[in-house]
Specification:
Layout lengths: L1 E6 L6 H14 L7 E6 L2 H14 L4 E4 L16 H4 L5 E4 L2 H6 L4 H13 L3 E6 L4 H10 L8 E4 L13 H15 L5 E4 L7 H5 L6 E4 L6 H10 L2
Parallel strand pairs: 1-2, 1-8, 2-3, 3-4, 4-5, 5-6, 6-7, 7-8
Helix pairs in contact: 1-2, 1-9, 5-6
Bound molecules: 2-phosphoglycolic acid (PGA).
The site of 2-phosphoglycolic acid (PGA) has 12 residues, from β8.
Length: 230
Amino acid sequence: MKYVIGNWKSNQNLTESLIWLENIKSLCPRLPKDITVILCLPFTDIAAFNSKLSEINLPLITGAQNVSHLPPGKHTGEINAHMLSELVSYCLVGHSERRRDFKETCVDVAQKAKALLENTITPIICLDTPYLDEQIKELFRFDVDVSKCFFVYEPLAAIGTGKPQNPNSANIIAHQIDFLIDNVSPILYGGSVTSDNANSYVSQNQIDGVLVGTDSLDPAEFCSIIQSLS
Ligand code: PGA
């Protein structure tokens, strides 16, 4: 199985997201069977997006982009894993923008991953080389079952810059992640992925898919990325 994950970040209100969905339905009426497509949406779009998805019968899977590390309780403004469990099957954790802008630590990320797994949501854990070892050590320290997680290697220099990393170098880091987690979890690459380069990552022996930011917002380009892998 190959994976394409879209990350809309802090873009698209509900109206815009439903228009995106109509467009993708006409551009990609049938998704290839060997590709799992997951779309990580803003919290505000998820419920209505899911209803529309079941109406139009498109096998897209929804995910979230973040979750609270805290359990349900007196935590004003927090969206926890229990709340998300009725809405999504996947959730990004530890994206570099959250580490940079919200000072998320490897401990926070491990706690979030644990909370997600306790609520049967698959954590999609984003990693870069400066904290790769530390992050995986914290996952083990918090008893996170890494065989139930997805991992994405996202080099900072490639995110949103139009300067993707060389696929061979990305594959070397993907091997390093595979060695550290010692299992068969999917490992993806993210950072300036386009329809022109997506297949050069997925054809590497250790890379199972791509995480797409900017180009997931454009239905035609996102559809081309999916089709380029089938
Ligand atoms: P990009 O973003 O595709 O715009 O580089 C990737 C990401 O941040 O996940």
